[in-house]
Design goal:
Blueprint: E1 6-10, H1 14-26, E2 30-34, H2 37-47, E3 51-55, H3 63-74, E4 81-85, H4 91-96, E5 101-104, H5 109-124
Parallel strand pairs: 1-2, 1-3, 3-4, 4-5
Helix pairs in contact: 2-3
Length: 130
């Protein structure tokens, strides 16, 4: 789909990443997936996604290190990031790093879509990241 927003999903749970990808593609998004933080950074540099959905616990490079690398490479908050994790106690730490939103597993896919659309709407209206 030409002009579709590109979303990078980084999660080592292959089934979950695939489910998110299928759901987002059905809504017209262009989706690429990464199995770890290192691959996510490489894909972000190549693909320039409009948004990243990032798991925290991953092999090779965890989500926190990946987020810091993305902020270093692109600038803090330049690419909106939604953290996807089973660990809800790290919310404050990630907010300090400039995440746009935070979703705790297990989550409702409709809720994730609403959050993504809210981020894109804020960005299109020129509102600063939260």
């Amino acid at each position: 789909m030409a002009g579709a927003k590109k979303i990078l999903v980084a999660d080592d749970e292959q089934q979950l990443a695939l489910a998110i990808k299928i759901r987002l593609q059905s809504k017209g998004y262009d989706v690429v997936t990464a199995k770890d933080g290192k691959e996510a950074v490489e894909l972000a540099l190549q693909q320039r996604p409009d948004l990243v959905i990032l798991d925290v616990v991953m092999p090779v490079m965890d989500g926190y290190s990946c987020l810091r690398e993305l902020n270093t490479r692109f600038g803090r908050g330049k690419i909106p990031v939604i953290i996807l994790t089973a660990r809800d106690r790290m919310k404050d730490l990630f907010e300090l790093e400039g995440i746009e939103d935070y979703v705790v597993k297990p989550f409702d896919h409709e809720d994730l879509l609403v959050r993504i659309e809210r981020i894109f709407k804020r960005r299109e209206q020129g509102q600063a990241p939260k």
